[in-house]
Design a protein that fits this description.
The structure holds two protein chains of two kinds. Chain A is an all-alpha fold. Chain A has one domain (about 1-260). Chain A has helices at about 1-15, 20-40, 40-70, 75-80, 85-115, 120-150, 155-180, 190-195, 200-210, 220-230, 230-260. In chain A, helix 1 packs across helix 5 and helix 6 (about 120-150) crosses helix 7 (about 155-180). In chain A, about 45% of the residues are buried. By secondary structure, chain B is mostly beta strands. Chain B has a domain at about 25-230: 3 Solenoid (Pectate Lyase C-like), CATH 2.160.20. In chain B, the strands form three sheets. Chain B has a 14-stranded parallel β-sheet, covered by helices on one side. A 13-stranded parallel β-sheet of chain B has the order 3-6-9-12-15-18-21-24-27-30-33-36-39, with no helix packed on it. In chain B, strands 4-7-10-13-16-19-22-25-28-31-34-37 form a twelve-stranded parallel β-sheet. Chain B starts with a helix and ends in a 22-residue tail after the last helix. Chains A and B meet through helix 3, helix 7, helix 8, helix 9 and helix 10 of A and helix 4 of B.
């Protein structure tokens, strides 16, 4: 545990020195503030931010994560020459990246809300912040997994981008295709199950439940709303998101331990 | 001189106010008085008399008012229908009923029992009454020139089949419905074959079916009413020359719920209304020449669902704010006009700075067409993939209606006085 914290501390230093993270924070700060100034109400801001969250956070997390692990190769080798558990080192590296990323997002969005919003959208904002953090954790883990498996940098980046593209666009395309192919069958339940397998869809649906409630009260929407809007459905979605952040992490950690440096 | 004139005027006014009461009598109904029941007083009264009803509980079964009298309740005397009777039936002209608390009307599957039913009369006034657990609240049939004002009507409807309407009008003319509150009936306000009616300043909420429901009721006016949380919102059908001004349709949520459902409505005007948080703001089917202007559509699932069998309708200077879908339709054909609306999803620019966007706006998204065809696709709402599809469709419209565009979208929300 001590080692993990030590590594995290070091990573914090390293990351805060790099301007990447500051830029990331400023990006959310500026976007949120601008949306408030031009867009008006908090509800609309959350809607726009939501599009950003499900698009940008996975991209940045996965790219930054992959890059980070590749860049730290020398440092990792150096540390591994000391009596230090690989597992602790890996945990430290992961948290040392995921925590600052989540924190910048959290701050970048919350600060403008603190002085612009009247606090009437707390539920939706909470959902947004939670989804953003989960997506950061999940895609950082996926990034580490990619980087741990593929030692070739170029290949690693390519795969990382593909993974992102798959979850953010291709998967939903396949869902739409499914909808049209099986148009004659009742599809609401299978679709709910399908969306559990995509963290981005999960995050998106969780946010929908607090934002597009009017549309979700229509016939089909009501089915989604009834299941996912219930406490049980919410708990299941959040559980799946948690699972999504843990499983790739464990896989990556295993891979890291067997790696031959 | 002026003092004299004032004195004469005062005397004249006094005389004139006394004049009718010289011939008309006043009766006091009091559980402990000379007339202990309304019926007893009614039997003695003649046209033009006034019945004062003292506080108390009156259980008199069905009361029929067949004389032109004025009934005034003091401190809401309770007239109990004991779950069996229609309480008051008015069959005389110019009856005025005020200040009563009518309760427990008999539920019937064969008769439309009401707390107050006016049958083929003229000039009745029903005001400041409270009606609770009425099967039907106030029922006007074949009547004209009546006023229903400031009544509080609260039903206990649970199922549609054995519940009645709050205010029910059938074959009426020149009726004013004003300042009433109707809750928990089947339909809040129901019109059938009513002409020249005015419905103003009422609140109709939490009714099982519709807040307002009318059919074949031409030349009517609805203004400043509030319809909210009704099972299926508001539905109006087979009518022409309807004016709906400054009403509020709010929180009508559900699978088959509409802020305002229009079916076969012609030559009408819907203006300056607010549609807030409904599953569907306006649903229009087979409507012609309806002008929808200066309304505000906010946070609805669908602001407007416009079926392709509607023609020559105009949507002008409305504000569309943060609706999940602005306009949905079921065809590529469009015979309606959209102009000068403000769309919060509009992303165009205004180079010549005339406050009109230089790029036409297409309010029908590809995704709304997809959802119309395959409702389960709704689960992809706000997905990035759908976003890309919508952008692609906006650049090269192939599937969305070509002519359903707003050529002059407003850059700023339209201000409505």
């Amino acid at each position: 545990m001590k080692t993990i914290i030590k590594v995290i501390k070091y990573e914090f230093h390293d990351i805060f020195r790099s301007k990447w993270l500051i830029a990331y924070l400023l990006f959310f700060l500026m976007v949120t503030d601008t949306l408030f100034r031009f867009g008006g109400g908090g509800n609309r801001v959350i809607l726009s931010l939501m599009n950003l969250v499900i698009f940008v956070i996975p991209l940045i997390s996965i790219l930054f994560g992959t890059m980070y692990l590749y860049h730290s190769q020398e440092f990792i080798k150096l540390l591994l020459s000391h009596p230090i558990h690989r597992r602790s080192l890996f945990a430290g590296m992961y948290l040392g990246l995921a925590i600052p990323l989540s924190l910048s997002f959290w701050l970048g969005v919350s600060i403008p809300f603190a002085y612009h919003d009247d606090g009437s959208n707390l539920m939706a904002l909470g959902m947004l912040l939670m989804s953003g953090v989960f997506l950061t954790l999940i895609f950082t883990a996926l990034a580490f997994l990619t980087a741990a498996i593929l030692s070739d940098k170029t290949k690693g980046f390519g795969v990382a981008i593909l993974v992102w593209l798959f979850f953010v666009v291709i998967y939903d395309g396949l869902i739409l295709l499914t909808v049209f192919i099986f148009a004659d069958y009742p599809l609401e339940q299978p679709l709910i199950i399908l969306s559990l397998f995509n963290p981005i869809d999960l995050a998106r649906i969780l946010m929908l439940l607090s934002l597009d409630i009017s549309a979700l009260m229509g016939y089909t929407g009501a089915v989604f709303n009834k299941f996912l809007g219930s406490t049980w459905g919410m708990a299941l979605s959040i559980f799946c998101l948690a699972l999504w952040s843990i499983l790739p992490y464990i896989a990556a950690s295993r891979q890291f331990q067997d790696e031959d440096f | 001189m002026s003092q004299w004139r004032q004195t004469i005027l005062t005397v004249l006014m006094l005389l004139s106010s006394l004049a009718p009461s010289l011939s008309a009598k006043t009766y006091w109904v009091d559980p402990s008085g000379a007339f202990s029941s309304i019926r007893a007083a009614l039997a003695h009264a003649t046209d033009g008399d006034t019945l004062h009803v003292a506080p108390g509980i009156y259980r008199e079964g069905a009361i029929t008012i067949d004389k032109s009298i004025h009934v005034i309740g003091h401190n809401l005397p309770q007239i109990d229908g004991e779950g069996t009777y229609q309480i008051i039936t008015v069959v005389a002209d110019s009856v005025h009923i005020e200040g009563l608390h009518l309760m427990n009307v008999g539920v019937s599957f064969t008769q439309d029992n009401a707390a107050i039913k006016c049958d083929a009369v003229e000039g009745c006034v029903i005001e400041n009454n409270t009606i609770s657990n009425g099967f039907f609240g106030i029922y006007l049939a074949k009547s004209a020139n009546c006023v229903v004002k400031n009544n509080q009507i609260k039903g206990e409807a649970v199922r549609e089949v054995n519940s009645g309407n709050g205010i029910h009008l059938w074959y009426c003319k020149n009726i004013l419905i004003e300042g009433n509150t109707v809750r928990q009936h089947r339909d809040g306000i129901y019109f059938e074959f009513v002409e020249h009616g005015t419905v103003r300043n009422n609140l109709s909420e939490k009714n099982l079916r519709y807040g307002l429901h009318f059919m074949f009721s031409h030349h009517c006016r609805y203004e400043q009413n509030q319809f909210q949380q009704n099972g299926a919102g508001v539905a109006v059908m087979y009518t022409q020359d309807v004016h709906m001004v400054n009403n509020r349709f709010q929180k009508n949520w559900g699978a088959a719920s509409f802020g305002l459902l229009l079916k076969d409505i012609r030559d009408s005007e819907i203006t300056q209304n607010h549609f807030v948080e409904n599953t569907v703001g306006i649903y229009a089917e087979a409507c012609d020449r309806v002008v929808v202007s200066e309304n505000r559509f906010e946070q609805n699932g669908w602001a407007i669902k416009l079926m392709a069998n509607s023609m020559d309708n105009t949507f002008r200077r409305n504000n569309f704010l943060v609706n999940t879908f602005d306009v949905a339709t079921n065809s590529r054909q469009n015979f309606n006009t959209f102009e000068g609306n403000y769309w919060s999803t509009y992303r165009g620019y205004d180079l010549d700075q005339d406050d009109v966007g230089d790029v036409p706006f297409r309010p029908v998204r590809l995704f709304s067409l997809i959802v119309e065809k395959q409702p389960p696709a709704l689960i992809l709402l706000r997905s990035s993939f759908i976003g890309l599809l919508d952008i692609a469709e906006r650049v090269f419209p192939v599937l969305t209606p070509e002519t359903l565009i707003d050529p002059s979208p407003a850059m700023m929300p339209v201000t409505v006085e």
